[in-house]
Amino acid sequence: MDEDIKKRSTLLMIICWAAYTAQYINKYSMQICIKGMIDSGLFTESFGGYVLTAMFASYALGQFVNGWLGDKFDPRYMIGTGLTGAAAMNLLMGFAGDKVAVLVIWCLNGWFCSMLWAPVVRCVAEFIPPERRSRAGASLSATSPVGLLTVYALGGIFLQISSYRYVFIASGCFGAVMAAVWFVCTHKIRDHFKNYSSVAPESGKSVSDVRIGGKKLAVLLFSSGAVFGFGSIVFNGVLKDGVSSWTHSYLVSNYGLTESLASTLLMILPFVNLAGAFSSVRIFNKNKNEFLTTALMFAVSAAAISLLFAVKSFSAVFAVILLAISSAAMLGANTMLLTFLPMRFASVGRAATITGMLDTASYLSSAISGPVNGTIIENHGWDPIVTLWTVLAALGVAVSAAAAFKWRKGKHIAESGEKQ
After folding, report:
1. pLDDT, greater one: 106 or 315
2. CATH assignment at residue 150
3. What is the pTM of this model?
């Protein structure tokens, strides 16, 4: 590998990782703040569910649009714009005093956050050498744990000494700094974006030369079995984002913890999530089947969630451990479905498009689960919700296991772009 290409691709990997970590901070700051916003009288649990729904729905629509745009426009500007906009929305949330304003601002935040993931996957698929692509994809799975750790740390600090508003302000400042770093660093390696492509570097072809049309892409999705990914990602979206949005409230409501203490306890989640993400990659490296790995992750999550009933009368520490295991398993499944599965389509120039489509399905399910979770919790308590989460995890096992058989041969169809 050319030394200059190695250096530029290394820098690109680092700033992609840092940018998406910052995006997680800006996207999930609401998790720590929602309880304080409810207690302050700004809105009710039900309205909080609708705020989360607005964000997830906006993010889902944005993923679909920006996934398509991510294969056509320079990812440098899409990622930079998304970082800047999300940072601005978090800063505005720090001063919002009306629930309608909160709804509108957080909806816009969802759109700006959606501008990052598909272009980031495209950067890995197109501008990182093939021999480094798998490692880069695996490293991206660490962005969620590190981002969540930072959010929980901000909550543990500012909720203790001030209020939820400063969590939003700190998140916005972090995002603004990262946006500046992104623009400076990508300007330094601008020639790498113009002159290098990992799709077929020996032939000099770019992604635009090999990109297939929409009709052929649809045929490949069905003939390869990748279409099952939409079923798996729906259950993953409900469990990964829908559950995590209420984890903080679950601990405060069921164990009488303070908001600050709950935030501190939840700092274990990112570390366990990191282990879950890399464990899924390790399993994948052995079976080379994204869906089989996903099925195993769903099974772990179903077992952990179901055990919440058994530890309800014990210390909150046991509940945190089980929630952490479920969260880690769902991040592992998410890594398979939103990073490794789309990269199979890099050779046909559709990595960003597939990423956007799958992420859209994920967040549409999250958007639906938001008000459903909030309404059930408000009217019936936590036990029915835990039961529902367990059932959904079991359904995820069934769908992903069925998909694994089709994908065993179909993955080669996706990579070649030709139906066999």
Report:
1. 106
2. 1.20.1250.20
3. 0.77
